């Protein structure tokens, strides 16, 4: 008997069992590698959970197994309904298997909201200013108490299902009958609230009972009312003056009837233990303020007053399924310094989140203050200067009862925490760090046979985790934490090898598009702040690069359909202001190759290169969307831009660019701005620019993502490895060797000669310079999508084999299934194991000397020389010719050995 093909990783809109689906969905799946027979066809079925009647079911035709996904539900989905769906795989031996998943709809269609926004009523107690010696700064002293809300309602009979839709202007926690609803934190996340507020959907059937029930909720300032970024002009009220809550529950009974429980005038509010909560400043909890059983029926006392309610208006909350923000990992700490009233705790990892502190012996009124920092000074003190105005300080006052202090309405970037006050009884077991972040499903593994390189990869992954909390941020600790567009676009390929970021970034792209002004210019950050930053080269271009890259990575055409008009508008903006096709005007602050080392790349060169790149990708998107005339127009314009670039910046006789920098040559080569005949000269100039430095890198945020891939493409993976393994400053391993557990913002964030860089801009948790991870996966391991492939249907696998490295292993759960590449090389024999999923094929490429032969699964291969695209331009003298072979799905062993 043979095992049939099995579908796995069933995803709805790139998420596992999402809730709140409110429109057509993209259903996708992977096929397993462990089967004796080949897949012949796949079929998708969708039905209302609990029934398989023909009335409720939808079924696709049998499709080719190469299909990456299918769209469903344009007009057929019903609100508040759980749907099941399955993928059936028919194998060549006649067998078939079926795998199922579910999704839960939100409010489908317009006019479904009945709830009102509610805000706290008049305060029951006039809030007095804290005493001046309480340790609180002026910035936090006047933050208002966090409002609490409650409402009681009746469930009339047995429920078939109960679904609640919730959002806030602020960040919320919802309770039903004393139980926390869901495990999301810091929701509804950060969007540009002037455009939209997202709502979340929860199934609360099991939390309710026939008879009296109660909702309780807390709404903190969050991004809506709290401190946001470094815009001091509008901190604490950037969007709105106070937190508000919106709740609508649908109680669906087994007889088909329905009750709606909605926030409005019947709800009540009060103050509670959370005296203030702010994402940047911290959270203050006074446990002596006791609301009793406020989330249970009958739990109200005289402190509760009626809320203020107002209609929902024209700004209807939207549901954009994205990964929830969750408490994902708990890490124990180690007390590294102890005094009677102060301890310093090291958690061994820079992360984003909070502390949980369990107290069991504090007297009533005893307090603990927690300060957070990424590192410590040489004297052993907590280093907080680089936080700027973000105080990142939490405070707990005890009621005298045992309690766990978990400040869930704030967020800090830290490795170290300083606890001050009544801390003498605390031990390591009482303190843990909690990593709170968007739960992007992780899909990659990588080992590089070197402790430093493996730590570097870990640092990159932790930078990814730390800077994806609702939106992709630059840093998680200081008074910034903004969605800088360039950071996201350069890091996206590296991010996608490590996590499925499709839904996360698709949601963020809506905010990117909303920043676009009437002239077509994107802002530099999204959501946009009231700041002058606008339309910088490499930053605004993310509005083109990110949607195209997501389409290539995941195969969902909707991201192009949603973004295409804004992509065209961006091109029009640049073109109108630069009729000579050199991007000199309307370039915003034009940051250039931000934070490069020792040399600066001409900013007009960088801008014009990005203009050509955005034209290339927008033309490709036009092809996909069958906008034929637009594609032709864009390609013609690109040719003019490339010609202008070459005339202005390139000496074609020598291959020298006006900026003789690594980044300049990488832009010219990677963005295909050089004629084929000029490639050897220009490539040799890139090699010179690297070797004359040591070899060492000089690239900043823009160039760093291109440097190693470009070196590999011109035949100098040896030089790429030299840069990756370099330990002296400037290098990736310099920070690793000095204790980094995430990627630094600057190459010189701390050096042995100068100590800390300026605290005004010195984050120790930025992912931009971690863009090297794409090279590790795609080139070092060889898991690289071919140029015209979609969703990893076809690969160009050419591992950067190096005897000094010896061994590399990588796996990647692609949209097609698991791809694996692992090689070992001792200087004479190469053993390379490859695994491809059923709907994926590959071309393998190896350099083979006349003294070597190649075996595929034990069978010797015929050697036929090939050229690659782009052609090799600067190979090492005496380099062996390169050969290619096609391989089918499955497991393969490639052996290259000396004859």
TrEMBL record:
<dbReference type="Pfam" id="PF17389">
    <property type="entry name" value="Bac_rhamnosid6H"/>
</dbReference>
<keyword id="KW-0378">Hydrolase</keyword>
<dbReference type="GO" id="GO:0005975">
    <property type="term" value="P:carbohydrate metabolic process"/>
</dbReference>
<dbReference type="Pfam" id="PF05592">
    <property type="entry name" value="Bac_rhamnosid"/>
</dbReference>
<dbReference type="InterPro" id="IPR013737">
    <property type="entry name" value="Bac_rhamnosid_N"/>
</dbReference>
<feature type="domain" description="Alpha-L-rhamnosidase concanavalin-like">
    <location>
        <begin position="338"/>
        <end position="436"/>
    </location>
</feature>
<dbReference type="InterPro" id="IPR013783">
    <property type="entry name" value="Ig-like_fold"/>
</dbReference>
<feature type="domain" description="Alpha-L-rhamnosidase C-terminal">
    <location>
        <begin position="791"/>
        <end position="853"/>
    </location>
</feature>
<dbReference type="InterPro" id="IPR035398">
    <property type="entry name" value="Bac_rhamnosid_C"/>
</dbReference>
<dbReference type="GO" id="GO:0030596">
    <property type="term" value="F:alpha-L-rhamnosidase activity"/>
</dbReference>
<dbReference type="Pfam" id="PF08531">
    <property type="entry name" value="Bac_rhamnosid_N"/>
</dbReference>
<dbReference type="InterPro" id="IPR008928">
    <property type="entry name" value="6-hairpin_glycosidase_sf"/>
</dbReference>
<dbReference type="Pfam" id="PF25788">
    <property type="entry name" value="Ig_Rha78A_N"/>
</dbReference>
<protein>
    <recommendedName>
        <fullName>alpha-L-rhamnosidase</fullName>
        <ecNumber>3.2.1.40</ecNumber>
    </recommendedName>
</protein>
<dbReference type="InterPro" id="IPR008902">
    <property type="entry name" value="Rhamnosid_concanavalin"/>
</dbReference>
<dbReference type="InterPro" id="IPR016007">
    <property type="entry name" value="Alpha_rhamnosid"/>
</dbReference>
<feature type="domain" description="Alpha-L-rhamnosidase six-hairpin glycosidase">
    <location>
        <begin position="442"/>
        <end position="779"/>
    </location>
</feature>
<dbReference type="Pfam" id="PF17390">
    <property type="entry name" value="Bac_rhamnosid_C"/>
</dbReference>
<dbReference type="InterPro" id="IPR012341">
    <property type="entry name" value="6hp_glycosidase-like_sf"/>
</dbReference>
<feature type="domain" description="Bacterial alpha-L-rhamnosidase N-terminal">
    <location>
        <begin position="159"/>
        <end position="328"/>
    </location>
</feature>
<dbReference type="InterPro" id="IPR035396">
    <property type="entry name" value="Bac_rhamnosid6H"/>
</dbReference>
């Amino acid at each position: 008997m043979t095992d049939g093909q099995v579908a796995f990783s069933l995803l709805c809109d790139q998420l596992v069992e999402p809730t709140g689906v409110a429109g057509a969905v993209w259903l996708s799946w992977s096929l397993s590698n462990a089967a004796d027979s080949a897949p012949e066809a796949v079929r998708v079925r969708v039905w209302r959970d609990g029934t398989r009647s023909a009335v409720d079911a939808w079924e696709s035709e049998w499709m080719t197994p190469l299909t990456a996904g299918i769209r469903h539900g344009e007009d057929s989905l019903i609100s508040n309904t759980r749907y099941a769906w399955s993928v059936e795989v028919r194998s060549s031996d006649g067998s078939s298997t079926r795998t199922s998943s579910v999704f839960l709809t939100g409010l489908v269609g317009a006019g479904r909201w009945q709830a009102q926004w509610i805000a706290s009523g008049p305060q029951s107690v006039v809030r007095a200013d804290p005493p001046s010696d309480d340790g609180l700064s002026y910035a936090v002293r006047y933050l208002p108490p966090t409002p609490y809300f409650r409402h009681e309602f009746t469930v009339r009979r047995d429920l078939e299902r109960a679904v609640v839709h919730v959002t806030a202007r602020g960040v919320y926690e919802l309770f039903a009958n004393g139980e926390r609803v869901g495990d999301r934190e810091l929701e509804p996340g950060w969007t540009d609230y002037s455009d939209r507020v997202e709502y979340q959907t929860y199934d609360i059937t099991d939390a309710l009972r026939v008879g009296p029930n109660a909702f309780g909720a807390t709404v903190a300032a969050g991004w809506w009312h709290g401190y946001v970024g470094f815009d001091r002009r509008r901190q604490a009220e950037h969007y709105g003056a106070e937190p508000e809550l919106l709740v609508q529950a649908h109680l669906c009974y087994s007889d088909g009837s329905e009750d709606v429980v909605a926030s409005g005038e019947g709800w009540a509010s009060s103050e509670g233990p959370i005296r203030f909560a702010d994402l940047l400043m911290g959270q203050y909890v006074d446990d002596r303020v006791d609301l009793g059983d406020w989330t249970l029926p009958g739990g109200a006392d005289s402190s509760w007053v009626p809320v203020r309610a107002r209609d929902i208006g024209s700004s209807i909350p939207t549901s954009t399924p994205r990964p929830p923000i969750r408490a994902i990992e708990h890490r124990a700490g180690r007390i590294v310094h102890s005094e009677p009233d102060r301890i310093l705790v090291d958690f061994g990892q820079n992360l984003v989140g909070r502390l949980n502190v369990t107290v069991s012996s504090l007297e009533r009124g005893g307090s603990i203050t927690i300060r957070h920092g990424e590192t410590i000074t040489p004297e052993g003190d907590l280093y907080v200067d680089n936080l700027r105005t973000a105080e990142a300080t939490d405070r707990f006052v005890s009621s005298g009862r045992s309690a766990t202090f978990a400040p869930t309405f704030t967020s800090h970037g830290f490795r170290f925490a300083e606890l001050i006050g009544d801390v003498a009884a605390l031990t390591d077991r009482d303190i843990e760090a909690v990593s709170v972040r968007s739960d992007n499903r992780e899909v990659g593994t990588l080992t590089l046979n070197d402790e430093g390189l493996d730590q570097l990869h870990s640092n990159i992954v932790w930078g990814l985790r730390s800077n994806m909390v609702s939106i992709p941020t630059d840093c998680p600790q200081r008074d910034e934490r903004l969605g800088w567009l360039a950071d996201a676009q350069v890091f996206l390929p590296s991010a996608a090898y490590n996590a499925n970021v499709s839904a996360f970034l698709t949601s963020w792209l809506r905010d990117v598009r909303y920043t676009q002004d009437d002239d077509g210019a994107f802002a530099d950050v999204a959501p946009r702040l009231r700041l002058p930053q606008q339309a910088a080269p490499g930053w605004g271009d993310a509005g083109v690069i990110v949607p195209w890259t997501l389409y290539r990575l995941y195969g969902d055409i909707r991201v192009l359909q949603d973004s295409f008009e804004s992509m065209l508008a961006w091109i029009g903006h640049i073109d109108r202001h630069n009729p000579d096709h050199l991007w000199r005007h309307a370039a915003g602050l034009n940051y250039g190759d931000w934070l490069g080392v020792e040399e600066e790349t001409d900013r007009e060169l960088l801008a014009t290169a990005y203009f050509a790149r955005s034209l290339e990708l927008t033309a490709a998107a036009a092809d996909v969307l069958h906008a034929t005339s637009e594609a032709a127009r864009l390609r013609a314009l690109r040719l003019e831009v490339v010609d202008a670039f070459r005339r202005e910046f390139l000496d074609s006789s020598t291959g020298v660019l006006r900026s003789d920098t690594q980044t300049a040559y990488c832009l010219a080569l990677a963005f295909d701005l050089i004629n084929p005949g000029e490639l050897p000269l220009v490539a040799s100039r890139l090699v010179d620019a690297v070797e004359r430095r040591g070899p060492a890198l000089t690239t900043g945020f823009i160039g760093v993502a291109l440097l190693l891939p470009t070196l590999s493409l011109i035949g100098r993976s040896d030089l790429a490895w030299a840069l990756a393994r370099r330990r002296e400053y400037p290098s990736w391993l310099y920070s690793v060797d000095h204790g980094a557990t995430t990627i630094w913002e600057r190459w010189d964030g701390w050096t042995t000669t100068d100590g800390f860089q300026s605290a005004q801009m010195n984050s120790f948790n930025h992912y931009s310079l971690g863009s090297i991870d794409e090279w590790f996966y795609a080139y070092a391991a060889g898991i690289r999508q071919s140029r015209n492939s979609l969703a990893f249907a076809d690969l160009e696998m050419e591992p950067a084999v190096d005897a000094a490295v010896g061994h590399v292993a990588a796996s990647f759960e692609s949209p097609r299934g698991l791809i694996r590449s692992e090689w070992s090389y001792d200087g004479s024999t190469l053993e390379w194991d490859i695994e491809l999923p059923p709907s994926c094929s590959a071309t393998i490429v190896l350099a083979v000397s006349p003294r070597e032969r190649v075996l595929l699964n034990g069978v010797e291969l015929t050697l036929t020389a090939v050229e690659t695209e782009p052609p090799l331009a600067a190979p090492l003298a005496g380099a062996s010719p390169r050969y290619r072979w096609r391989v089918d799905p499955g497991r393969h062993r490639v052996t290259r050995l000396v004859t």
